[in-house]
Amino acid sequence: MPELDSSVKTELDPSVVDVVNKTIAPMGRSMIREFAEKFAKIPGLIKLTLGEPNFNVPEHVKDAAIESIKENKSHYSDQKGFLSLREAVSGYLNKQFNLKYDPESEVIITIGATEAIFDSLGAIINPGDKVIIPTPTFALYIPIVKILGGIPVQVNTTADGFRLTGKHLEQVIEKEGPDKVKAMVLNFPGNPTGFVYSKDQLQEIVDVVKDKSMFVISDEIYAELTYGHKHVSLAELMPGKTIIINGLSKSHAMTGYRIGYIAGPKDFVEQANKMHAFTVTAPSNPAQFAAEEALTNGIEDPVYMRDIYQDRRDFLVDQLNDMGYVTKMPEGAFYTFSKIPEKYHLSSIEFANKLANEGLVGVTPGVAFGDGGEGHFRISYAASMEDIQEAMKRLRKFTNNL
Question: Which biological processes are named by the entry's GO terms (predicted)?
C-alpha cells in the first residue's frame, strides 16, 4: 500500500464556498471537546475534562459482543433495535425505576444518548418553536435545537442551587408564550452540576407542565450514579408527556459502544423512529448484544463504580472548598462544578486556559454549559484517584500563585 502524503489537501472549489447550511456555519464546535483536545496537547497535563469513565467494560458484557460476532449475527436488526434488547430495556426501566413501556412500540435503540436527543427533539420541533433549557447543562441541547430550527430558551438556575423551580418555570413559559413553548429538556442527575431532583421537586415541574401543550425530554443518562438515594424518574410522575433518554455509556463504562435509547408513548415513538431510521437505519449488532447482557445480567455492575466515584467526589469537594472554590456536594453523576472566586477577575475560559498552561490541569470552563455556567469550572472525577490527587496538588500550587 503506497504511503499517504499528508501535505496533499483537497481545496474547496470557489463556486461552492458559500453553499453551506446557514444555521450550522456560524456554530463553533462543542466547547467540551474543543478544550479537551487542546489541553491534551500540553505535555504533562492531567486531563479532568471529559465524562469518560476510567473503568473497563465488564467482562461478561464484552463476551456477549464477541459471541455475537462469532455466531455471525451480522445482518440488519430491526430499525428500532433487536426486540430482545428492547425487552431488556423495558424490563430494566420497570425494575429500577417503576416505569412501564411496551418494548415493541415504545422503545428505540439509538447510537448513544446523543442520537436519542436529536431524534426526540426532531420529532417535536417546527421552525420557530421554543425549547426551554435550564442551564448550566449538557452542551449539545442548545445547538441541536438551533439546527432543527427551534429557539433555545436558556434559563439560568444558579440562584436556586442549579434547580429549576416550578415557580421559575411558570414565569418562563408565560414570558415566552405558552403557545410557543413546545418542549423542555431536563437533565438529571445533572451534567455539569451533579444536581438530582427529588420526587417533590419533580412534582413542582409536573404541576406546571401537566396543563401545557409541551413535552419534557428527560435525559437520565446518569440515573445509576446517585449517592445516598435512589433516582426517581420524571416519567413515573408524568408518563404521557415525558420522553426518557438513557443509555449504557455512563452506567457500564460503554462510551465507545454508542448505545442509548428512547422510551416514551407509542404515538411519539412512531415519530421519533422516523428521525432515527432516516439518520442511522439501525444500531451496531455487537454493541446491541453487549447492551442486552448489561441490562439483564449486569444491573449490579454500576454499584462497584459508584462506590469508587463517591470516594473521589468526597475528596475533591473537600479539597476544592478548602482552596476557596465554593463547590456544592454533587448528588449524582461524576462531576464537580466549582465557583471561580471573583477576586481573580477571570472568566471561566480564561481560568481554564491559565490553569492548563500554568498549572498543568485540564478542566472545562463553565460557559461551555450555557449562560448559567459562566464563573464556574467543571472537573470530571471519572479519572483515577491518583490523577485526581496529583491534580489537586497542582491546583493548590496554582491557586497560591494567583
Answer: amino acid metabolic process
CA distances, 1 to each of 4, 5, 226, 360 (Å): 9, 12, 51, 40
Q: Is residue 120 part of a domain?
A: yes
**HEC letters along 239-251:** CCCEEEEEECCCC
The C-alpha R_g of the chain, in whole angstroms, comes to 22
Taking only the tens place, the pLDDT of each residue in 319-363 is 999 999 999 999 999 999 999 999 999 999 999 999 999 999 999
* Mean pLDDT computed over 115-119: 98
Is there a single domain that holds both residue 121 and residue 260? yes
Together in a domain, 151 and 44: no
DSSP string, 132-145: EEEES--TTHHHHH
The mean pLDDT value for 7-11 works out to 82
Residues 70, 199 share a domain: yes
Say what the alpha-carbon torsion angle 314, 318, 321, 327 is, to the nearest 10 degrees: 10
Mean pLDDT calculated for residue range 135-143: 95
CATH code of the domain in which 209 resides: 3.40.640.10
Residue 128 lies in a domain: yes
Q: Of the candidates 59, 52, 51, 72, which has an alpha carbon nearest to the alpha carbon of residue 290?
A: 59
pTM of this prediction exceeds 0.90: yes
Q: Is 24 helix (H, G, I), strand (E, B) or coil?
A: coil
CA atoms within 13 A on the CB side of 325: 24
DSSP count for the chain of H helices, then E strands: 13, 12
* pLDDT tens column, 226-267: 999 999 999 999 999 999 999 999 999 999 999 999 999 999
Q: How many domains does the chain have?
A: 2
Q: State whether 143 and 227 are in the same domain.
A: yes
Domain span at residue 97? Answer: 59-297
Dist. CA 142–CA 150, nearest whole Å: 9
- In this structure, the answer to whether residues 185 and 164 fall within a common structural domain is yes
Q: What is the pLDDT of residue 140?
A: 94
